[in-house]
């Protein structure tokens, strides 16, 4: 069963001092997202530092979130790994826990991958999972992976596995490319990886967005989606909301994504532990942190009324 259309946060992963996953803090954050405008939450995407965690850690993390009462149907799981058996194991684990959607990059470890090679890898993953419930979302992020989901590759996958390929997350930030995907593959859910294009994606018949900055812009993104669903998207209020959403995204993304968002979360929640991340990622230096603080103040993202007073 595919995931419902809507707004998905590519969720950050908070860590304890020993750099293990801080499930209680994670669960609180996921609840805030789901209560504050998100349709669902993506765990262990690139923003969630997925490739810094082992298969066992990712499986245990998901189980911890579910045991804390987060509904499985509101989650999507990133399962792309360098080793195909690891991707298969994560996808099977997600399905065993009734997670509706699995997101995966094309094979990213080697450079110069051909369409034939990429198709063979995805084919092996799908056949290895061997479960009719699998709803696979293709993560197009060539800047990160070095390997695109080309139209040719998507066509081959859809032709071979029409009941499995559910959608595409396009993080290219290229509207021409996104619009072309929507026109060429109208039966697939198109999810923008950048909420700057949220309104345009919805107007083109797309499904919504999966975005890193939705960790802090979920209320605005949720409002744009809700207004569109209600048929009131072409209004001055909606355009104003989208303009603010776009301005925040563009301003924040002038900084390194994960360190920036974790720093903002530390400020918003009062929980300094949010700044932790696994190497090779490192927190912002003092100069970058000061520049970000000025930007965040200008964006009014640190309203004291929104602070949650989490323990440090």
Describe this structure in words.
The chain is α/β, with parallel strands linked by helices. The protein has one domain: Aldolase class I (TIM Barrel). It has 12 helices and 8 strands. The chain is globular.
Please describe the topology of this protein:
Elements: E1 6-10, H1 23-35, E2 40-43, H2 55-67, E3 75-78, H3 84-96, E4 101-104, H4 115-129, E5 136-140, H5 142-145, H6 151-160, E6 165-170, H7 175-184, E7 189-192, H8 198-203, E8 208-211, H9 214-229, H10 236-252, H11 257-269, H12 286-299
Helix pairs in contact: 2-3, 3-4, 4-6, 9-10
Features:
312 residues, alpha/beta, TIM Barrel, eight-stranded parallel barrel, 12 helices, 8 strands, globular
In short:
Strand 1, helix 1 and strand 2 form a beta-alpha-beta unit. The chain is an alpha/beta fold and 312 residues long. The chain has twelve helices and eight strands.
CATH class: Alpha Beta
Helical segment count: 12
Give the structural class.
alpha/beta
Poorly predicted sequence stretches spanning 5 or more consecutive residues: 304-309
CATH architecture: Alpha-Beta Barrel
Mean pLDDT: 93
Spatial gap, N to C terminus:
39 Å
- Biggest sheet, strands in spatial order? 1-2-3-4-5-6-7-8
Quick one: overall form? globular
Rg measurement, Å: 19 Å
How many structural domains in the coordinates?
1
Percent of residues in helices? 40-55%
**Order of helix and strand elements from N to C terminus:** EHEHEHEHEHHEHEHEHHHH
**CATH fold name:** TIM Barrel
The strand count comes to 8
- Please give the largest β-sheet: 8 strands, parallel, barrel
Strand content: 5-15%
Looking at CATH, the homologous superfamily is: Aldolase class I
């Amino acid at each position: 069963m595919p995931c419902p259309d809507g707004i998905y946060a590519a969720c950050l992963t908070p860590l304890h001092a020993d750099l293990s996953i801080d499930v209680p803090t994670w669960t609180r954050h996921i609840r805030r997202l789901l209560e504050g405008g998100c349709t669902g939450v993506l765990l262990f995407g690139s923003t969630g530092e997925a490739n810094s965690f082992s298969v066992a850690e990712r499986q245990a993390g998901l189980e911890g979130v579910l045991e804390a009462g987060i509904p499985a149907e509101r989650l999507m799981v990133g399962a792309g790994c360098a080793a195909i058996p690891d991707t298969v194991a994560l996808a099977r684990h997600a399905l065993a826990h009734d997670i509706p959607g699995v997101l995966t990059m094309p094979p990213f470890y080697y450079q110069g991958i051909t369409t034939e090679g990429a198709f063979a890898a995805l084919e092996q993953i799908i056949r290895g999972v061997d479960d009719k419930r699998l709803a696979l979302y293709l993560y197009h992020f060539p800047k990160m992976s070095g390997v695109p989901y080309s139209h040719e590759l998507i066509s081959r996958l859809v032709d071979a596995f029409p009941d499995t390929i559910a959608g595409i997350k396009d993080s290219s930030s290229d509207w021409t490319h996104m619009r072309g995907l929507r026109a060429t593959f109208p039966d697939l859910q198109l999810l923008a990886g950048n909420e700057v294009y949220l309104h345009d994606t919805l107007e083109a018949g797309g499904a919504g967005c999966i975005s890193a900055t939705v960790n802090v812009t979920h209320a605005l993104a949720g409002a744009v989606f809700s207004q569109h669903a209600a048929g009131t998207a072409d209004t001055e209020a909606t355009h104003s909301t989208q303009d603010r959403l776009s301005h925040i995204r563009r301003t924040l993304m002038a900084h390194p994504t994960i360190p920036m968002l974790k720093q903002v979360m530390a400020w918003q929640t009062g929980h300094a532990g949010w700044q932790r991340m696994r190497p090779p990622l490192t927190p912002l230096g003092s100069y970058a942190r000061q520049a970000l603080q000025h930007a965040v103040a200008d964006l009014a993202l640190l309203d004291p009324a929104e602070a949650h007073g989490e323990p440090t």
